[in-house]
Every structure is written in structure tokens, then in C-alpha cells.
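User: I'm curious whether this sequence folds into something compact or stays loose and floppy. Could you predict its structure so I can see for myself?
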Amino acid sequence: MARRRFIDLPFRIHGHDPSWVPPLRYAVWDRLSSRHPAGEHQEWALWTAHRHGRPVARIGACIDRLFDRFQAKSWLWVGFFEAFDDAEAAAALFETAWDWGRRHGATTAVGPASFTTNDECGLLVDGFDSAPSVLTTHNPPYYERLWTAAGWEPAMDLWGWRGDLDTNPGLSDRQRRSLDRLSRSHDFEVRELDMKDFDADVLRFFQVYSSAWERNWGFAPMTEAEVRHLAKDLKQIVDPSLVLFAQRSTGETVGAALALPDVNESLRSVRSGRLLPFGWVRLLVGTRRAHGVRVLALGVDSEVRSRALGPLLYHELAQRIMARPHATWAEGSWVLASNTAMNRACEALGGRHVKTWRMYEHQL
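Assistant: Here's the prediction. I'll summarize afterward.
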């Protein structure tokens, strides 16, 4: 019953907000299940604050031993935060989570993340005028005040870039020349996800992901079991033509890109958060007819030094996005605010910085 109230609370808080996309209840249940593969290296706890017998706020806290070992840190991840505009309740929950983290050896609290950067993370602080795309967070503006008033300090901003496909300038002349040289060299080729070899391609993708992003702020490694679990969920909405691999003539995968149709456009109307009895239809239709596409990842193996491989992947992905019959826009998120090169590239390609999510920290 307590877990059910925990999952129900966001529906009470945000149900009136037409921009809010209800989370799929089964997905939240799954993430908080003791059977989730992340439980092999994570420990978490959940709390709900009540006022006059009614729940008014919730929070979760997590220790990820795999992350701590890999990054040589002692972090407490704080997430699953939802609250009415009640500063006292929010502060009480933050203190409860921090105390739990101290008892488990954490020295720094970081959030919001439910529970790491491999999950939904970031507090929306700018860009409330547009609806959230698939697998991004959305919250009321007052959340920022609840966090900062409780003593959280900014740690990192995550940016979202949006481009309208009918005004996309494409590659620059310099990038085209590099792309032509790379194409003539025949060192690399780009292919899409092979659904018949799905499991193997999933592992190839995450090998590139780990190599390309391991130096990024907040990077959290995943076990093979977690990777397969995540891929099983994404398989329901993935478009194979939007998952690309760059490989050498030897077959070695050295780059990858992932984009997803914005199924939020259709799931926004599933206000119950339940796929049965008719939510599945909206999900399937949304996958095929989405007007938007979110680019989640585009990276190159750290051992590969070719500067043209990134534009090669971008160009091929852009062509495939524009070939979708209903597509009108694309969003690239999240991009670390500190990633100057990528942000400049997004701007040069005609993107507009439309959203900012903020990660906070608090020293314990």
C-alpha cells in the first residue's frame, strides 16, 4: 500500500498540467522492484511526507557501489522527488535522505536522479513553455525554489537543443569535405540496428557508449544485466533506422547514435499511466506517427581519433530523421553545459537552446 501511494502521488500533483506526461506505472514499479538488476550494486530507500494524513511529497535515495568504485567517489543519489508547494515537507524529506546517505558512507548528495544518470534525471529550470520529449523530466517552476531553499547548490546543467527540420542547414562545407574524404577512404561504414541480432547490437552500442562517455560528469557504468533490461524496455518504441553503428571494414564498431520517436505526444493522453486497455494502441501509433524525434546519444569510441566520424553519423542520422513521414522537429538532449564543442556544434547546425535541466549537489 505504501509503495502504491508513493507511485500515485505525481498523478495528484500534476494531473491538471496538460504538459505533464504521466509515467507508465509498470515502469516505475519495475525500477523500484527488488528484482531490478541494478539492485546487484545499488541500495535504495523511499519516503513519503504526510500532512493531515495525506501524502504531500515523496523522495528516494540510492547508493551505487559500482559508480563509487568506478568514479572514486561517495555519492548519494537523490531522486523520485515530487511535492506540492510545501517547503517544510520538502526540507524534511531532504534531511531524511541526507541522514540515510551519511549512515551509508556518502559524502556528497547529488540529484535529482532516479537513480543515476542512466535514469531520468535533472530538474527543469528553463523551458517550461514546451512539452517534455520522451524520457525527459518535467516539473513545476516552484521545484527549483524547494531545492535551493533547502541548501542544494548547482552542480551541472544539462541542455536541450531543438531544430525544426524544414530549416535545418545540414552540414557545413568543412564538415562535408571531411565527410567526403572519410567516405572515399572506405575505412568506415554506417549501418542501422539489426533487429534479428538485437541482443548483440545492444552490447555493441553500450561498449561504444561506455568508451565515449566514461569521462563525462556523472557517468555511471552499467552491468550487462542492466543493459539488457533497459534494452528490453526500449525495444517497444525503438525505430531500427534511428539506431546507427559506425564500423570499420573489419566489422569493429567504433561509433554509435541513438534517437527515439517522441512517443510522449501520444502518451500524454494516457492520464492514468496504465497501458491497458487502450494505452498500448497509443504507444504503437505514437511510435510510427510521432512528429518529434529525440537524439539521446551520439558518440565515438575514445580510441578513434577521426574528427569526421561524428559528422558522418550525424549526417546519416539527420537524413533518416527527415525521411520519417510525420517528422517536423528533433531534440538533442541531454548535452552537458560544459561540453563546449558539442553545444557549439548544435548551435552551428541551427539548433536552439530550448531547455535547461539542473543537477544539484549538497555536501554531507
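Summary: The mean pLDDT is 90. Residues 161 and 346 are 7 Å apart (CA to CA).
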